[in-house]
Amino acid sequence: MLKIDNIKKTFNPGTINEKVALNGVNLSLEEGDFVTVIGGNGAGKSTTLNAIAGVWPVDSGKIYIGGDDVTRLSEYKRAKYLGRVFQDPMTGTATTMSIEENMAIAARRGQSRGLSWGITKKERDVYREMLATLDLGLEDRLSSKVGLLSGGQRQAITLLMASIQKPRLLLLDEHTAALDPKTAAKVLEISDKIIADHHLTAMMVTHNMKDAIVHGNRLIMMHEGRVILNIAGEEKKKLTVEDLLHQFEKVSGEEFANDKALLS
Ligand SMILES: Nc1ncnc2c1ncn2[C@@H]1O[C@H](COP(=O)(O)OP(=O)(O)OP(=O)(O)O)[C@@H](O)[C@H]1O
C-alpha cells in the first residue's frame, strides 16, 4: 500500500542552517497495516509524514501509494490518496461552520457539488450515524458550530472527516498530543475504531511509547533521519517501554531524548 524507497531530504542546503532531516528512509506497509512511529527530538518523524503528503519535494528516493508513483505529484494531487490529522485541534475543521457542514465538505471533497446544494436528509442521516459511533453525544448537535466544541471533540470529528472518503493512507501526526490524558485516550480509542471499521492503512506519530506499543500492528523507531527499528506482529505485542529504550541505545549508541516523551 505504501512503499518509501530511500528518501532523502536536506533543508536549507549549502547554508549555515543546513539540516539533513531524512537520510535514506525505507518503509513498506501492507494494506491494513497500522504503524506507530516514535523517535527522539528531530528524528524525522513529521518530516517523513510531510514527505509522503508532498508538502515539498524530496531530494531523492521514491514514494509509492497503492502502487502509484506519487514522488513528483503536488501536495494537492496527493490529497486524494490521504487523510491527515495534526496535533492542533484548530487545524482540521472550519470553526465558523457547523458539524454537518464540515462533514459535508469532507464527504464532497473532489466533487463538483459544493455546499450551495444544501445537505440532504439522507446525508444528514449518514453523518448522524457516523457521529454516534464516536459516543460523544455529537449526533444530536449537527447544527452546532465546530468552534464551540472541545479540542477532543474536534479531533474526533477531524478523524471522521479524514476517513470519510476511505483514504489509501491515514497520517496521524501527534494528533492527541495537545489533549489532556483522558481525552487523548478517548481519541486514540476512536482512532483505533475508525481504522478498523474502514480497514484503513495508517501511520501514527506519537511521543508516547506506551501508546506506540499498545496501538497498531507495527512500530518503527526513527533516529537521525533513518528508520532504526521496525517491529511487527507477535514481537510488537510483547514489547515494553524498557525494551524500546534498550533497543534504541543499542542501535544508536545514545540515550533516548525526546522532551515531550519525558513529560508524558
Ligand atoms: N521546513 C523545515 N525547514 C527547516 N528545517 C526543518 C523543517 N522541517 C523539519 N526541519 C528539521 O528537520 C529535522 C527533523 O524534524 P522533524 O519535525 O521531522 O522531527 P520529529 O522527529 O518530528 O521531532 P519532534 O519529536 O521533535 O517533533 C529537525 O532538525 C527539524 O528542525
UniProtKB/TrEMBL annotation:
Per the record, membrane topology reads: Peripheral membrane protein
Keyword Glycosyltransferase in the entry? The reply is: no
Q: Is ATP-binding one of the keywords UniProt gives this record?
A: yes
UniProt keywords, alphabetically: ATP-binding, Cell membrane, Membrane, Nucleotide-binding, Transport
- Per its UniProt record, what SMART domains does this chain match? AAA
The cross-references to Pfam families, in alphabetical order and at most eight, read: ABC_tran (PF00005)
Q: Name one GO cellular component term.
A: plasma membrane
Which residues belong to any copy of the ABC transporter domain?
Answer: 2-249
UniProt superkingdom: Bacteria
Q: Where does this protein chiefly localize?
A: membrane
Compartments in which it is found: Cell membrane
Which Gene Ontology MF annotations are present? Answer: ATP binding; ATP hydrolysis activity
Stated name of the protein:
ABC-type uncharacterized transport system, ATPase component
Species of origin: Roseburia hominis (strain DSM 16839 / JCM 17582 / NCIMB 14029 / A2-183)
